[in-house]
Amino acid sequence: DPEGVIHVANMAFEFQRTFKHDVVIDLVGYRRWGHNEGDEPSYTQPTMYAKIKTHPSVATIYGDKLVRTGAMSREDLETIWATKRAAMDQPGNGAHPDLPVAPADLPAVDSSAMSGRIRATLQGLTTIPAGFEVHPKLMSFLKKRADLLEGKGKGEVDWSTGEALAFGTLLLEGISVRLSGQDVGRGTFSQRHAILYDHRDAKEFVALQQLAAGGSSFEVYDSLLSECAVMGFEFGYSATHPRSLVLWEAQFGDFMNGAQVIIDQFIAAAEQKWNQANGLTLLLPHGHEGQGPEHSSARIERFLNLCAEDNLRVAYPSTPASFFHLLRSQGRSGMRKPLIVFTPKSLLRAPHCVSTLADLTEGHFQPVMGDPSVDPSMVRRVIITSGKVTYDLMKERDTRGARDVAIIRLERYYPFPAAELIDVLRHYPVTAEIVWVQEEPSNMGAWRFVRERFLDGEVPGFETRVPKYVGREASASPAPGSHKVHMSEQDELVAKAFA
Fold this sequence. Notes:
Elements: H1 2-19, H2 46-54, H3 58-68, H4 74-88, H5 111-125, H6 139-150, E1 156-157, H7 159-172, E2 176-181, E3 196-197, E4 204-205, E5 218-222, H8 227-240, E6 244-249, H9 260-267, H10 270-274, E7 281-285, H11 300-305, E8 313-315, H12 320-332, E9 339-343, E10 355-356, H13 357-361, E11 368-369, E12 381-385, H14 389-400, E13 405-410, E14 412-414, H15 418-425, E15 433-441, H16 447-455, E16 468-472, H17 483-496
Parallel strand pairs: 2-5, 2-6, 6-7, 7-9, 8-9, 12-13, 12-15, 15-16
Antiparallel strand pairs: 1-10, 3-4, 8-14, 11-13
Helix pairs in contact: 5-6, 5-7, 7-12, 8-9
């Protein structure tokens, strides 16, 4: 009884809205074909399925009712069925006509306009309502941003500021931003502070909401401890709000394990299964820093195994500016694809992981970052790497004075930036050895994915120059449980990269 179902659902909704009380609807249904169309349910339920076999379908019962009551003619009913069957037989029949379609990519923003939007964002981030008392320990946090606005200090943009500036400039362009996850308001590592609390009465203030323009909004929610439920909700939200940047952040990257079914069944495959575009962004803190097996890896290898048919964007940015441009390109793109971002932990406050305002106002996201600090003609070894270990390698190179080693950063894994990588590699001698360096064990991380790109000829001209591997040995666990063991392994792999 479809109309009965709608009536009860409406009544339950009105009851919940009026009396603020939960409602349970007891809906009786049945499976006409058992578990699926190829199943034979009468093996185990012979009497029930004997009845079901002779029972008219819901569509038949409702269609007959519409004809009987004069709401529709039999001819109209048959036309609806014929049209629907024809549509289902066509390629791409999973397209949902009711889902909104994102507009085309927004036009590029020149540096002068971007500079103005960044200044407006910094102004908004540092404007606190009269009478609102920020926690005393956060005054230095706000002062650093105020100094950026006023041109004081070193003019350095750290990771959380780069993120906030990406959010703010998108809001000023009319693009909504929505962020959810466990403790995202403050940030797992006390780095974001998107929600400020008056330390006297816990009153909330969200500075970025002041920047919403052109119908945009900024929402940030500390969500319940159910990754599967929340990521699934945000997937649906993103599907129906195409002109918005919708993000879900894990406390630690491997906490996405609790939502693996959403990743596998929806995020990775929705476009191919149902022709349903989606732009959900996952922020997954990743990095081997001695915190143990459960707080080190966002399982890069799992996402790369899911990559095919241009279904995902998978990135591991190494600078605040790279992250800034990546988020903005995701929010402004009309081509909606899920974005997986492996984000840092220790680098959030590292003095060497900073960008300048000029890095943000100019340029765009670079999937491959070259090494301008070395003379290409003198290079004997080219290291290709990603993420946090880049800085360990740079420190080791400075210690050794190894100016004949170039360090190339792969900022995006998929779609694999073969053309950009070739453009960088061709500047070095053909005799230069190519090495892939990662922190993760060899059976994890991006190593096997990158190696296959070379072996399969996706990097033309380098089929015979497949990178050599430098990193941890294969392991059943993502990382050792001992910090001492971690440091020993880390020192060893970094040294081996220059051996």
